[in-house]
Amino acid sequence: MSPASRTAAEPGVAALLAEIAAGAAERERLDVSPFEQVAAVAAAGLGALSLPVDEGGRGASVREVLAFVVDLAEADPIVAHVLRTHYSQVLGFLRQPDPDVRRRWVDEVRAGKVFGNAISETGPSAAGGHEFDTRLDEVDGRLVLNGTKYYSTGTLYADWIAVAARVPEDRVATVMVPADRAGVDVVDDWDGMGQGRTGTGTTRFTDVAVEPGDVLGARPRLEPRPPGDVAFLQLYLHALVAGILRSVATDAAGVVRSRSRTFEHAPVPQAVDDPILQETVGRLSATAWVAQSTVLTAADAIDAVMEAWAKGEPTDELLLAASLAHVSVKVHLDRVGLEAATALFDVGGASASSRARNLDRHWRNIRTITLHNPASYKAAAIGRHLVSGDPLPVNGYF
């Protein structure tokens, strides 16, 4: 197992992670939503990692946040995935230029509130594009939100929902809506083969009243998001994979230790002494270590972008470096992660496929995470850039 992050090494946090991990496999096998576990993470102040120390946080960098996410994903990748939008939204609050607006939302984070998302829509427009049918309109002197969103990861657990909505003059607004407000319908209809209880379902808004102060701002529809936002959200997924791979390595060692018999033609009579099985466990451990290391190295590149942006310095070259870093992590990790989750079964006999063991959850979860966007398109984009100098795509999936 890779060493824990600084946050996870704290006694109280370590105990919480251990408690979350103890029931994770069974919750997933029984299709139980981890409401208590998500609430426990928030109550422990771990949703406020990025807040400055003097504002009740730990002043964590992107690297430190993602190091904790790897630890949390090792304990339970469902819980870690639920908080993806939350951690991204906190970074957005910290960039707020209006001190009163910033203070309001930082207070909500410090109070343990959880933020979900309602951004993506389906339809004829391409994934990652800038088309939204959801609208925020002024009706009889009040703001009203209407629309339907999909893949609303984490919203089932959220106190606040960040919504992307069209507003006049071809602009897109970010609207914060309480999850329990009249007209908000959070539907638990995600049926993926992996990451099944992340609340990645449909969210409908029907004549939802919006307070003017809950509109964070609006930008031209085709304007790129602030530097580092997309890179953080995409690298977050790879932090989940890195955490799962640590569980793969741990489970592989546990399977070998638990074997009471082996095959007659095995090189040694005891599985724990089998050099073939030991090599497999060693390779899985090495894969997990490299996965975490690449995620954290790419996180350093994102930190550099965000630090430059905060100082008003140029970010183009830094953003390119960060984009190439997190995309490269995906292109490599998607393949080796799935290979590792498959190789886990090589250390066991037929009993490794037992539903009670639930070892297949690792493969299903990694495969589902990789489907957020194809690595093939990303590898091709890197190749075009290196060969012909073409710019990398600019959208919410790259």
Automatic annotation (TrEMBL):
Q: What keywords were assigned to this record? A: Flavoprotein, FMN, Monooxygenase, Nucleotide-binding, Oxidoreductase
Fetch the PANTHER family from UniProt.
Answer: ACYL-COA DEHYDROGENASE (PTHR43884), ISOVALERYL-COA DEHYDROGENASE, MITOCHONDRIAL-RELATED (PTHR43884:SF12)
Q: Which reaction does it catalyse?
A: dibenzothiophene + 2 FMNH2 + 2 O2 = dibenzothiophene 5,5-dioxide + 2 FMN + 2 H2O + 2 H(+); dibenzothiophene 5-oxide + FMNH2 + O2 = dibenzothiophene 5,5-dioxide + FMN + H2O + H(+); dibenzothiophene + FMNH2 + O2 = dibenzothiophene 5-oxide + FMN + H2O + H(+)
The protein's Enzyme Commission number: 1.14.14.21
Residue ranges annotated for the Acyl-CoA dehydrogenase C-terminal domain, each copy included:
239-373
UniProt record similarity statement: Belongs to the DszC flavin monooxygenase family.
Name of the protein: Dibenzothiophene monooxygenase
Q: Mind telling me which InterPro entries this protein's record contains?
A: Acyl-CoA_DH_C (IPR013107), Acyl-CoA_Oxase/DH_mid-dom (IPR006091), Acyl-CoA_Oxase/DH_mid-dom_sf (IPR046373), AcylCo_DH-like_C (IPR036250), AcylCoA_DH/ox_N (IPR013786), AcylCoA_DH/ox_N_sf (IPR037069), AcylCoA_DH/oxidase_NM_dom_sf (IPR009100)
- The domain of life for this entry's organism is Bacteria
SUPFAM superfamilies reported for this sequence: Acyl-CoA dehydrogenase C-terminal domain-like, Acyl-CoA dehydrogenase NM domain-like
What does the record give as the organism's lineage? Answer: Bacteria, Bacillati, Actinomycetota, Actinomycetes, Pseudonocardiales
Where's the Acyl-CoA dehydrogenase/oxidase N-terminal domain? 18-112
Q: Pfam families, per this entry? A: Acyl-CoA_dh_2 (PF08028), Acyl-CoA_dh_M (PF02770), Acyl-CoA_dh_N (PF02771)
